[in-house]
Amino acid sequence: MDTMTLGSVEITRVMELPVLRLPREFVFPDVPVEPWHRHRGWLAPEHLDPAADEIHMMMQTWVLRSDGQTILIDTGVGNGRERPYMPMFAHLDTDYLGQLAAAGVHPDDVDTVICTHLHGDHIGWNTHLADGEWRPTFRNAEYLIARADFDYWNPDNEHDTRAGRQWENAFEDSVAPVQHAGQAVLWDGDHYDVDANLRIEPAPGHTPGSAVVLLRSGTDRAVFAGDLLHNPLQIAEPDSSCFDEDEDRARVTRRRILEWTADHNALLIPAHFAGAGAAEVRRNGGTFAVKQWASWQ
Ligand SMILES: [Zn+2]
What pLDDT, in 10s, does the model give residues 190-202? Predict the structure, then answer.
């Protein structure tokens, strides 16, 4: 089990699926092949398979123990979903709750769920199927959701999203039941303090309500960056976009968060990095570079 302690906060990495190997052009259709060639020396083999032309992604979540609370950042894809336009995530039957148990967490122990955004691979275990109905998996938890994403992805509002029907049914099976159970806390404004160590801040672009979780405890710093980055290539090439609703806004946000990370000696913990899953970064001319990969116990 991958665990580390930053300040007084214990972080545990909990995987939902084995590493996903996906065609590079499927994940990064707008990024030319050249930067992948240029950076393959440090991206392969963990993050890139140059021979197969595939990139590697993890479906994983983060358990934090902070201030006496158990906090879950993102909840993966979930089991038993109808995803007609995302077949690789349809009808999964993983032992994610067993992985969570191995990390010492029973669903009833979770006090807070933080959704970095409402794409279907971040909200799945918000709910589970019980007696034919989608119900909150974490029945004692508050679910912290940015109002901007709640409103944007709510099908009642009929927004014309760039993702189109990609995540069809996800709001209905993974968000609405939490709201109906009275467990959703829709936050807005320029920040939301979870506790003395953790603050959520808007990081719009990937989705309108995308957020990062800043950890400050003692002298340690980390940022849970959600889908601001999908692959470490984007540390070196921060203008490279991936599944972003608003690419220009995402580029501005990605650079801002990378600057904060470099300047505060923080650990960058995106949602989907394979390999070590997290890294310290430094400024490198106009972009950034990996200073050191995370080391877990
Ligand atoms: Zn994602």
Answer: 999 999 999 999 9
Domain membership of residue 10 (yes or no) is yes
Band (211; pLDDT cuts 50, 70, 90): very high
Bridge partners of residue 201, in order along the sequence: 212
Query: Which domain does 61 fall in, by range?
Result: 2-226
Longest dimension (CA), the chain: 56
- Distance (Å) from CA 68 to ligand 1 centroid: 28
Distance from Cα 274 to the centre of ligand 1, integer Å: 13
DSSP label of 15: E
pTM over 0.90: yes
Q: At CA 142, angle to CA 141 and CA 146, rounded to 5?
A: 145
Q: State how far Cα 82 lies from the chain centre.
A: 21
Check pLDDT > 90 for residue 1: no
> How far, in Å, from the CA of 149 to the mean position of ligand 1?
14
| Interval between CA 121 and ligand 1 midpoint (Å) | 5
The CATH number that applies at residue 118 is 3.60.15.10
User: Residue 297 falls within a domain, yes or no?
Assistant: no
Asked if 14 and 62 count as a contact pair (C-beta separation under 8 A), the reply is yes
How many domains is the chain built from? 1
- Tell me whether residue 143 is in a domain: yes
Please give the pLDDT value at position 73. 98
Residue 239 lies in a domain: no
| CA 73 to ligand 1 center in whole angstroms | 12
CA of 123 to the centre of ligand 1 (A): 10
Residue 97 and residue 113: Cα distance in Å, rounded? 15
Q: Centre a 10 Å sphere on the Cβ of residue 87 and count the other Cβ atoms it contains.
A: 8
